[in-house]
Hints:
The complex is a heterodimer of chains A (192) and B (293). Chain A has 192 residues and is an all-alpha fold. Chain A has helices spanning 15-23, 38-42, 53-62, 65-70, 73-76, 82-86, 93-107, 116-130, 135-145, 151-163, 177-185.
Amino acid sequence: MTYKHMIKYEAECDPKFAEWVTEIVGGEKIRQCIQCGICSATCPLSLYMDYPPRKLIHLAKEGFKNEVLRSNTIWLCASCYSCTVECSKQIKVTDIMYALKRRAIEEGVFAKGIPIPVLAKEFYKMVRSEGRTTESWLVVIMLLKTNILKIFGMTTLGLNLLRTGRFSFLKDSIKRKDELKSLLDSLEEAPS
Amino acid sequence: MKKYLYYPGCSLKGTGKAYEESLIPVFKTLDAELHEIDDWNCCGATAYMSVDELKAFALAARNLAIAEKEGGSDLVAPCAACYLVLSKAQQYMREYPSERHEVSEALKGVGLTYSDTIKVRHPLDVLINDIGLKEISSKVKKSLKGLKIAPYYGCQIVRPYATFDDQYNPTTMDDLIKACGAEVVYYPLKTRCCGGSLTGTIPEVGVRLAYILLREARKRGADMLVTACPLCQFNLDGYQDQMKRRYEEMSMPILYFTQILGLAFGIPAKELGFRRSIISANSALDMRGIVHV
C-alpha cells in the first residue's frame, strides 16, 4: 500500500488570500463553515474533482491560494446551485466558485488541460462586440484555440445541428452595439 | 388577451429554436401574447460571470431596464440560464446597494433606468399560476394517453431563486404533462445537472452526466424526456451519438414541454419545431398510437 503525501503546511498559506475570500460576493459567511460536507454530498461533479467543494472551501478559507486556483474543482462547477441551496450556514458556494474562476483568469493560473477559461473569455469578447452569442462560432473558436483534433469527435453533432436548422454561421447581434459598449466601458474602471 | 413581455435569449434563436417555435403558438392558444422586447442582449449566462461580475450584472440589468421602458410588469424568460441570471441580477442589486448604484449610473449614462419593477417569470410559472390547469385542460383536443414521460427540469429554473416551485421536487411540469393525458414517470433525477457546458469542454465528465440522466429514465420505462431548458435539451438530444460511442445507444427523444402541450392542443406538429429534434420523437409517438410528427 502506498500513502499519498497530503500534508499542507501552514507556512504555505497566503493570509491575504484568506482575507480576500471573506470580502468577495458570497464569501461573507465562509468563516462560519462547519465542514459538514453537504456541499460535496449534493454536488453531482464532486467525484471528478481534485478537491470536492467541502475541501476547497476549507483550503480557500485558510488561504491555500495555489491549491485553490490550480484546482480543477472551480472549472468543473457547472453552477447547479445544489450546494448553495443545501448549505446549513447559507454560504453561497456557487458564487464563491465564480469569484475563484475570475481570480484564476486574472492571475493566469489554471488547472492543466481545462479549456473552460478559454471558452469563458471568448464568450465575454463575443458578447462585448456583438451583444449576443452565436453558439456555432463559439464552438469553432474554442476548438481552434484549445484542441483542434476534438473537431473530429464533434462532426456528427455539427452535421446533425446543420441538418435540423439549429446551427447557423450567421452571426447574431444587437442593433445598438455602441450603447452596450459604452455601458460596459463605463464600468471598466469601477472597483469590483 | 393577457400580454407578457418576452425575453427569448440567444439559445431560443439558435440551437433551441424549437422551444420558441412551440412556446408562441401554445401561449396563443391560451390567449396569452408574448411581446419580444426591443434590442435585448445576451444575459451573460454562466460564462460572463466567470470573467467580470459587475459587467455581468450590467448586461442583465440592461435587459430589465429595456423591459421597464416598454411598460408592463412581467417579463417571460423561457431559457433556464436567462431566467436565473435575470433573477440573480435583481437579487444581487437588492443585496448590494453600492453595486446597484454603479450599475444604475452606468445605465443612466446610456439613457436607461433600472428601478426594479419587473417580475421575471418562467413560462411554467405563468401557465400554472396565471392561466391555470383548468383552462389548460379545457384546450386539450388530443389526449397523449399511453405516452410515458420523464419530467426533467434541470437545475437553474428552480435553484436558487425560484419561488413558484420546489427546489428539488418541482411538480409544475408534471401537472402539465398529466393535463395532456400522458403518464408521468417517477423520476428522482428531475433537477440533477445535465452537465451544462461540460459536455463540450470536458466530454468525459459532461457527456457522462447527461448519459446517467437518460439511463435512469430508460430504467424507469420512460418513452421520452420532456424538459424546459434549451441547454438540457441540447445536451441530452445532441450528445446521444457520443453516448453511443462511449457507453451505449439510448435513442431517447428529448422534447420541450411546450411541444407536448402543443401536440395535445391539436396544433400541427410542423408548427411546433419537431423537425429540430436530432432523435426523432416518431417511434415513441407511433408506438403509443399518437400522431406521427
